[in-house]
Amino acid sequence: MDHVWRVFENGKEFLFKNLDITTPIKSEKDANGVDYNITCQGYMTIDRDTSTAVITAKVKIKELA
Q1: In a domain, 61, yes or no
Q2: What does the pLDDT look like over 10-43, one tens digit per residue?
């Protein structure tokens, strides 16, 4: 079974195989007090071809072809 990252944005859950975060993060214990989560604030873009979430500190705007 592949490892899966659960990413939450605005109350919606996304699942990814890969995660690339280039903004400050912190860790926190979850509600059960045993496991840890990482948290950050930023802008998420999704690469569906590679199942990757990219979270950056600044908005990335795709160039129009």
Answers
A1: no
A2: 889 999 999 999 999 999 988 888 888 889 999 9
Place of tokens 């160039």: 63
Query: 63 in a domain, yes or no?
Result: no
HEC-encoded secondary structure of 5-55: EEEEECCEEEEECEEEEECCEEEEECCCCCCEEEEECCEEEEECCCCEEEE
Q: Give CA–CA dist 56/53, Å, rounded.
A: 10
CA distance 4 to 26: 19
User: What pLDDT sits at residue 63?
Assistant: 64
3 state DSSP class of 56: strand
Indicate the number of domains in the chain.
Answer: 1
